[in-house]
Design goal:
Length: about 325
């Protein structure tokens, strides 16, 4: 009887196991509060297969467009002038002054043209002589002086000047062309502005012959007579023409008429149809500062010549 309690306990355990095994199957209860998966709002996902950028293995070569348009220069771009010439654009300018036969002040329209930057030199004129076209200056003292090769040729009459310009493929400027090239469009008194400046031209300064009553004894431009052309760049006109105020007078194409301005056409005036004297423009090495004015007019018989007379040439833009 000593093992009876353990026997009872075993019976109870076996009965309990049997009841558990043979009882009704419990019905699964669905979860009443299943959490809905919420995607992470800001959690960065690790890159799964981030591609590494590869350099292009076949960089295309830029191909110029086959129909590249030809650049068209703006219409207001001046054509490049021929060598040693400056360009004067078409348009109106103010011509003349209120003094004697320089009046009346009037507006003139001119087509575009080129004009020599400087007076024609002895060296340039020599080329025309050597070509068998031009004739010797009437006095060759200065022409034959090698130190004056770059000085303006002088002692030339109007016909000789005309012949040289034609040989060079040019022509003498008209009086109006000359004045516009000298003063631009604003009616200025001198090529450089409205105030006389003895450092900007070769005129009758202290080096001038004392016999000249207009000599300016207190001023020094460095030359007693002609100076090399282009020696006073600060005296350039608005278009870059030099020595328009001094050095030598310059023959122009027009016949002279003292009251021509009161009857001249408003566009491209050519001067009177006939006359006995031709016009010269510019002051000279023998003129006072008064002669440096752009409106200054001088006249001379076309067959006359002298140490004060030279010239420069012009060319129409349309004929170049
Ligand atoms: Ca002088
Ligand atoms: Ca001159």
């Amino acid at each position: 009887m000593k093992g009876k309690p353990w026997t009872v306990l075993a019976v109870v355990i076996i009965l309990s196991m049997g009841l558990a095994a043979c009882g009704p199957t419990p019905t699964p209860v669905p979860p009443t509060d299943t959490p809905t998966p919420v995607p992470p709002t800001n959690t960065p996902l690790p890159p799964t297969d981030t591609p590494t950028p590869l350099p292009p293995t076949d960089t295309p070569t830029p191909v110029p467009p086959t129909d590249t348009p030809t650049p068209v220069p703006p219409t207001n771009t001046p054509p490049p002038p021929p060598p040693d010439m400056v360009y004067v654009p078409a348009g109106e300018f103010i011509m003349g002054s209120e003094w004697r036969y320089e009046k009346p002040v009037h507006t003139v329209y001119l087509d575009a043209f080129y004009i020599d930057k400087t007076e024609v030199t002895n060296a340039q004129y020599r080329q025309c002589i050597e070509a068998g076209v031009c004739t010797q200056p009437h006095n060759t003292q200065w022409y034959n002086d090698p130190s004056r090769a770059e000085h303006p040729v002088i002692c030339i009459d109007w016909y000789q000047a005309k012949a040289y310009c034609e040989w060079a493929g040019k022509r003498l400027p008209t009086e109006a062309e000359w004045e516009k090239a000298a003063r631009g469009t604003d009616g200025r008194l001198y090529p450089w502005g409205n105030t006389f400046d003895e450092s900007k031209l070769n005129f009758c300064d202290r080096n001038c012959p004392p016999s000249n009553v207009f000599r300016s004894a207190s001023l020094d431009d460095g030359y007693a007579d002609t100076a090399p052309v282009g020696n006073y760049p600060a005296g350039a006109s608005p278009y870059g023409a030099l020595d328009m105020a001094g050095n030598v007078y310059e023959w122009v194409a027009d016949w002279h008429l003292s009251d021509y301005y009161s009857q001249s056409p408003g566009r491209n005036p050519l001067g009177p149809d006939s006359g006995t004297a031709k016009v010269l423009r510019s002051g000279s090495w023998n003129d006072a500062g008064w002669g440096a004015r752009c409106a200054y007019r001088v006249l001379g018989s076309p067959d006359q010549w002298g140490e004060l007379r030279g010239f420069r040439c012009a060319r129409s833009v349309s004929s170049s």
